Amino acid sequence: MTANRPATGLPPNVFTLNYSPQLEALRGDFIFYTDRIIRLLVEEGLNHLPVIPKTVETPTGVQYEGVGFEGRICGVSILRAGEAMEAGLREVCRSVRIGKILIQRDEETAEAKLFYSKLPPDISSRYVLLLDPMLATGGSALKAVEVLKEHGVPEERIIFINLIASPEGLRTFCGKLPLLRVVTGWIDQGLNEKAYIIPGLGDFGERR
Ligand code: URA
């Protein structure tokens, strides 16, 4: 699976899965197939990690000049929907550490507010796969990145893994975070007046 840069004038740090009839068909049967798409997204996210040369000797006794991952990773899910992506990450990266961030909208100020976070203590030395299936306005994701930065994670070590994004959310998010990378499965049409992605999937949490 190779990543695409969407030809829609979106920021250069947005990468999508290649469009295919298969991906289009997967969208139809949400619950079963989201797990499959999430796995594809995690695999694609791992392609953005730096590698260093590594020599291995194969069982034939021949030396092969390959590569190995340079750094350690962890996952951080933005609760609650992001939790649904944890299993997909674990399937690909066995015994990966996973932190959690709970952000909710403050009803008085309408601002995204941090309610809870539990992150690996050595997170500042890791690459972070930040998990949230729906990028609507980008408010929660921006807040989550703020929390990661406060814990010492540099922006360029964060890869945001996302199922469906709105173009306006991507512009806001990537406009403020040009060094972070977004790997998304699908860029939808836009947002409705309730800030739901359209055509979208409705409320992700309610469908699982
Ligand atoms: N969260 C969802 O679950 N769905 C949307 O469309 C936007 C945010």
TrEMBL record:
<keyword id="KW-0328">Glycosyltransferase</keyword>
<dbReference type="GO" id="GO:0004845">
    <property type="term" value="F:uracil phosphoribosyltransferase activity"/>
</dbReference>
<keyword id="KW-0808">Transferase</keyword>
<keyword id="KW-0021">Allosteric enzyme</keyword>
<dbReference type="InterPro" id="IPR000836">
    <property type="entry name" value="PRTase_dom"/>
</dbReference>
<protein>
    <recommendedName>
        <fullName>uracil phosphoribosyltransferase</fullName>
        <ecNumber>2.4.2.9</ecNumber>
    </recommendedName>
</protein>
<dbReference type="Pfam" id="PF14681">
    <property type="entry name" value="UPRTase"/>
</dbReference>
<feature type="domain" description="Phosphoribosyltransferase">
    <location>
        <begin position="28"/>
        <end position="207"/>
    </location>
</feature>
<keyword id="KW-0342">GTP-binding</keyword>
<comment type="similarity">
    <text>Belongs to the UPRTase family.</text>
</comment>
<keyword id="KW-0547">Nucleotide-binding</keyword>
<dbReference type="GO" id="GO:0008655">
    <property type="term" value="P:pyrimidine-containing compound salvage"/>
</dbReference>
<comment type="pathway">
    <text>Pyrimidine metabolism; UMP biosynthesis via salvage pathway; UMP from uracil: step 1/1.</text>
</comment>
<dbReference type="GO" id="GO:0005525">
    <property type="term" value="F:GTP binding"/>
</dbReference>
<dbReference type="InterPro" id="IPR029057">
    <property type="entry name" value="PRTase-like"/>
</dbReference>
